[in-house]
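pasting for ref. prot 1 ->
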Amino acid sequence: MPATPLQQGVDDVSERTQQNRSAGQDQSPATKSGRRLAAQLAAKQAADRRRKVQSAAGALVGVVVLALLITVVVVVNRGDDDKPATQAGATPSASDVASNPTGAPPAPQLPEGSDPALGSKPAVTAGKGELKKLTVTPLIKGKGAAVAKGQTITTNYVGVFYKDGKEFDSSWNAGQPATFPIGVGQVIPGWDQGLVGVTVGSRVQLDIPGELAYGNDASGGRPAGPLRFVVDVLAAQ
């Protein structure tokens, strides 16, 4: 049966009402809140993506910087290896090698006008026969003042056993002269007695019997028996 105009009107009103309700639902507060949440979620996801990208970029930059530092260190080390050994400090310089080719300790500071031979370690041999008394033998005569009892003297020396010439002590091996008071009991009697009166700049040989050295008993660990010293007197004050 065809719809009456009234029924048709009611239907039209109902249809428009349903359309309005649908449109109204789209504009409801709940729908707007959902859209805002969706937008916030999308923004958060975008921010997370940006942070991940930035973090990855930062890590990459760190790796690049570390690689550059390693490269610089390697290049610097290679450059140091290529430098002459004289710059290392432990190896003598070219001038040092030229003036001291044997690698021995540097020559001592010598008194003015002294014999250049005092700048080299002397060769000391064994004595002959039985040594009964202190014997002082001048080897080089110095031009300085005579050493007085109570003065402090600076010396280079070599000490050997009188009988076989075997070295047991030397200031040359230490690379530094020895300084001590003379004539006051600070050294063995053979030195106290043998070096007083020797002029500065001299080299003397001291043949010292055991009783004026360290004694004749070897049990104390010191060189026992007669000894021979060659002593350079470099200064006296």
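and prot 2 ->
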Amino acid sequence: MTFTQATRIQELLESLEPELIEIRRDIHAHPEVARTERRTTALVAERLRQEGLEPRLLKGSGLTCDIGPSLEESGVELLALRADIDALPLQETTGLPFASESEGKCHACGHDVHTTVVLGTGIVLARLAREGKLKRGVRLIFQPAEEVQPGGALDLLAQDVLDDVSQIYAVHCEPKIDAGTIGTRIGPITSACDTVTVTVTSAGGHTSRPHLTGDVVYAIGRMIAEVPSVLGRRLDPRAGVNFTWGHVQAGSAPNAMPSSGIIAGTLRCLDVNAWERAGQVLHDTIEHIAAAYGVDVTMHHQRGVPPVVNDEDCTLNFEAAARDALGPSAVVLTEQSLGGEDFAWYLTKVPGALARLGTRTPGGETYDLHRGDLVVDERAISAGVAMLARVASGE
């Protein structure tokens, strides 16, 4: 990036920083859960219109907005920046003066920060475009419903939000690293995540006569113990496969063998090929256990999201932009996560990368995502805008 371009981005960002903090606090105070994000959509759209842009509102909620030269005008590439805009159905406990005003809803995953970062980047890029300093097209994507399955990424892909896009980038808050720091990784950075529910049935009976009926409880116990073990032996351990049960329900009396029971859990995997194979291994294992104990099973395997697999070139673009914007030591290697992120669906269509945006106050407390007490250092907003503006400007 030229010195003049970098300097101009920094000048624009410094003038915008107080406003961006206020926007983030407004969004934070008014969280909206999946597919209800109409206020957030309207706020973002109006601010973009103030910059002379023409956002495209999507079905239900969410929007896209193109900035800079179009493909028809110049043949330049079109790059996309994605932000997720939904909140969680969780009670906030921070006590902040701008804490959630909606009972049982809060931005405990940092999507208010993601939204503000991409909005701020859009404002900077719009001003660069008016000055003739933006040489490529950029599409902002404000996506609803990241926190549910099936998620909003699939909704938006069905509305052609990636038409003509050659690369896509996103950031995600990371409260384990300091504000002003970016975490990157080439290859898998988040995991595939599926939900599996198994219903086990038999005639039921008395515990004194277990031989006269299928033993639902015992069969469930074997499934709980054996399914993770079989997956660990049938699939490559380097694929990062993890199966964890989270729900068990069967019976109501100690001397009665129930006629039905339910278990549910999550399947996570860092490798696409192993993820595709794991479902059949899982199904076969459960069927074999059921047959051994004379019970019937119905399995519902809900595919969630594939792993986010960062493209090497796009990750290097992130790193170069972060070092340019934030300093030579601003980039750290981030750990892989077995959490799911539906940004992965975009990466099945075009190359791209997800970076971790540090939100911890240096020397301060480390929080965790999806907890009502999450507090972010708002200096992360400027850091994210500075980096994304450099990535998107392409110089």
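Residues 3-190+308-393 form a domain with the Aminopeptidase fold (CATH 3.40.630.10).
The first strand starts at residue 56 and ends at 57.
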